[in-house]
């Protein structure tokens, strides 16, 4: 099964944690604009960033994006 990334769920994870984007940026030493680009789907999180964000927020990397499944034909 193949997965595609849907929309970024970072804003939802931040809301659940009660943390602002600015606070997360400060903790991770990121520019807030970088996180904003992820939330607005202007950029896809690199794996290293996704891991850092997930650990900081106490969630799984898979929780940071909608995952869209598509079955590809394999011959």
UniProtKB/TrEMBL annotation:
Q: Where are the transmembrane segments?
A: none
| Superkingdom classification of source | Bacteria
Q: What Pfam families does its record include?
A: HTH_26
The HTH cro/C1-type domain extends over 10-64
Q: Which Gene3D superfamilies match?
A: lambda repressor-like DNA-binding domains (1.10.260.40)
InterPro entries named among the record's database cross-references: Cro/C1-type_HTH, Lambda_DNA-bd_dom_sf
Which SUPFAM superfamilies does the record cross-reference, listed alphabetically?
lambda repressor-like DNA-binding domains (SSF47413)
Entry protein name:
Helix-turn-helix domain-containing protein
Q: Which organism is it from?
A: Paenibacillus anseongense
